[in-house]
Specification:
The protein is an alpha/beta fold. It is built from 11 helices and 12 strands. The two termini are 27 Å apart.
């Protein structure tokens, strides 16, 4: 029985990027049943519901083995729903957002580390309220359960990759209670994974170091709470040539969602212009999760070859290839690798 993955087409450039990802997987003869669905702000604006995700799509998600989310838009007004990504993470307890930061051969920097982000609580729990017309309060919810499970995942990931260093990122000198719980959870699992060294950095310092000397983080895992790691991983992504190269996965105990790290870029929608790498690689990571490791490896290898050859790359990578042309080259190479 084939496995099923719900594929959210998303907003802006999302549908064309998702179409590119599905083409590559299909050309590589995936056996995963991909089920395209609508969700996001464009769906919401057309249907005027109270959510970016319909009840029908929620049902389909609950009956699938994994989810792929194309880039979606979250409208920044109080009346708009919670984002698609946050909603799915919280519903399915996808507590670990994992974003590899790795450069290609053509880059001047040589980076290889992984950002791990707690993805269900913190300020993204969405607990906020007005205290008057001129003031409002947001609550940073941190629980020991949330911290311990993502800390354990981060140590396991470091161990699996052979990394001997984990950077725990806090602002514990100011946020003594909430970051105190987070740091004590890290220390608990350091005792279990005692071959991995832990160094605590404050968020303002680590952000400066990612600009000044990002190579110091090579062969390590960076771990933090929800908002902090959202900022840190975005800063780190600026070192890999383009945010269009950065893929990610959101993992729970029984389900996972995969997504490119970038936004929906609506001003480029329909122009066959944007970089498909993050979307294609997120799809490759999804099929690895679902058991198709050979297909996943072929796609990652093909993507690396296309970028390093530097002939068929999009404008953000210094080339003039279209989205569809770069996709075609990745697909052809991946198919050849699988036939060897």
């Amino acid at each position: 029985m084939s496995k099923k993955a719900v594929v959210i087409k998303g907003d802006g450039t999302g549908p064309e990027l998702v179409s590119a990802m599905m083409k590559v997987l299909t050309d590589c003869n995936t056996s995963i049943e991909m089920i395209p669905v609508e969700a996001g702000s464009e769906y919401w604006e057309k249907n005027k519901t109270n959510s970016y995700i319909s009840d029908e799509v929620w049902t389909m998600l609950s009956q699938s083995d994994a989810c792929f989310k194309g880039p979606t838009t979250t409208i920044p007004i109080p009346q708009a729903p919670r984002s698609v990504a946050v909603s799915i993470r919280q519903r399915f307890e996808l507590y670990a957002n994992i974003r590899p930061i790795k450069t290609y051969k053509i880059s001047k920097l040589k980076l290889d580390f992984v950002c791990v982000r707690e993805a269900t609580e913190g300020l993204y729990a969405g607990i906020e309220f007005k205290t008057s017309d001129d003031s409002a309060v947001a609550i940073r919810k941190i629980t020991r359960k949330g911290c311990e499970r993502v800390a354990k995942k981060a140590f396991q990931l470091a161990n699996d990759r052979g990394f001997k260093k984990l950077f725990a990122i806090t602002k514990r000198n100011i946020l003594k209670e909430t970051d105190g719980i987070f740091m004590s959870s890290v220390e608990k699992f350091q005792r279990e994974f005692n071959s991995i060294n832990v160094e605590e950095y404050y968020i303002d310092n680590v952000t400066q170091q990612l600009v000044k000397n990002p190579e110091r983080f090579n062969d390590s895992v960076l771990l933090s709470t929800n908002l902090f790691m959202d900022i840190i991983s975005e800063c780190a992504s600026g070192n890999v040539g383009s945010i269009g190269n950065v893929y990610s996965g959101n993992y729970g105990d029984n389900f996972a969602m995969f997504e490119p790290a970038h936004g929906s870029a609506p001003k480029y929608a329909g122009q066959d212009k944007v970089n498909p790498v993050a979307t294609i690689c997120s799809g490759a990571w999804m099929v690895e999760f679902l058991g198709e490791k050979d297909i996943s490896k072929a796609i990652f290898d093909a993507t690396e070859d296309v970028i390093n050859e530097n002939k068929y790359v999009t404008y953000d990578l210094g080339g003039n290839a279209s989205l569809s042309k770069m996709t075609e080259e990745i697909s052809k190479k991946a198919s050849k690798f699988l036939k060897k």
